[in-house]
Amino acid sequence: MVQPAILWTGVVISAFAVVFLRLPDRQSRLGAAALLLPVLAFPLLRAPTAYFITLSAIHIGVLIYGVWAFHWADRFLSSGSWRSLLIMALLLCLGVIGDPLLAITGAGSLLLYAALARELPKKHRFLMAGATLVAVMLAKTLLHLNAATGGFETEPLETRFAPWEQLSSNFFTTFRSILLVYDADPSGQVVSAVLPECLRLALVVLALAGAYRVARTAWASGGRNTPFCSFLVVSALLDFIALAVSNRIALDGSPVAIARYLFPLWLDLACITALVWPTRRMAISISIAVLAVTLITDYRTLPPYSTGILSTEDNQLLSRLEKDFPPDGIGTWWSSGNLEVASLGKIHVYPAMIQGNGTIAPFVHIRKHMDWHSLDGKAFFIVIPHPEETFNEAGAIKTFGAPAARVTEGRYTILLYNADHLPARAS
């Protein structure tokens, strides 16, 4: 959990830095800070945001390389400095090594801008495009050499288009995922409890309006004005399109899982909002209202003596697990780490995902590798939330057989398996 926290701190600091470097006075910077805070800095305790941050360290860390690569590309276009071009290429290369998504949102943005910015000097456009291509090819070469010599291997991007009949639902799911990263999705919640989410919808509107304004200005000037903001707009657009038309949504299924691929768009839109509206009183007032409601809501949600990452309902679940169940268990991808950390290590909850055959398997992407046979001869529990997240009760029973007990705690079903349970049917 420490690594994602450090990386996210780096992302927030980077966002403030690249924005402040482009604003001329203290008043504008204060306005920009007010616009950035409710989007990036203060919603950390709200459950969906916490899931994204703690479970997607790689996607988070690469944002730092991407936003600073745009910063140095902007410097190169304004000054023609070879030093700026070299730093841009180096950051892009390191970022693509960390996450191939940056080849689309970072390199793709720079290449598309170089192609469309008709009023910029051709020499600068060719040099930026050439440096971008070299950086991506170097990153791919280094990854290949690393794997060939026994080093780690990275998961490639999903390069298959979604079937035509899935495109409409893909676009809807992608848009809903944008609302999730902004914590602006009121669907499925009680009307009286969605004031923070409804207010945050205004932040999404501000971001989209700011992106439209940047795009219109850049097109009218032939790319001469605001290259940095233009990079951000193109990057956000490529991120949205790449996710919506790819097969990634069908593979991951849940909008919460898919939302991590929209981190570049999230950061891009946050910076655009801060750079476009830093002196607009209406925008700043909306942002301050969102920030105030967020802090008040978070304060009321967190019970006394909480570690600060569980809701009141989840704290009740944790108390029940610590009191009545063995220390080992299985949970969803989203809640397993939160429960472990909140228990201060008293319980161990391993994340699981549903498989194509209907059984559940360990999700080893974020944990040390194991299989279910390590639970043979041990009592354990399985926590199943409702609505379901990464697996369901039928999958758990198909894997481990009938439980010794079935307990309901709030929106959770808890299955108890004694030490003499049947061996797992999947691992």
In short:
The protein has helices at residues 2-20, 26-41, 47-55, 57-79, 82-98, 102-116, 122-148, 167-181, 195-221, 227-245, 248-252, 255-258, 263-276, 281-301, 312-324, 333-342, 393-400; strands at 328-332, 348-354, 360-362, 380-385, 405-409, 412-417. It has 427 residues and is α/β, with parallel strands linked by helices.
Task: Give keywords.
427 residues, transmembrane, 2 domains, transmembrane helix, 6-stranded mixed beta sheet, alpha/beta
- The ordered string of helix (H) and strand (E) elements is HHHHHHHHHHHHHHHEHEEEHEE
Could you tell me the strand content as a percent range? Answer: 5-15%
What structural category arises from helix and sheet content? alpha/beta
Largest sheet: 6 strands, mixed
Total count of strands: 6
Unreliable segments (pLDDT under 50, ≥5 consecutive)?
none
Helical content stands at 55-70%
Count the DSSP helices: 17
> How many domains, as an integer?
2
Radius of gyration equals 23 Å
The averaged pLDDT comes out at 85
Assembly state (oligomeric): single chain
Keywords: Membrane, Transmembrane, Transmembrane helix
Protein name: Glycosyltransferase RgtA/B/C/D-like domain-containing protein
Organism: Gluconobacter japonicus
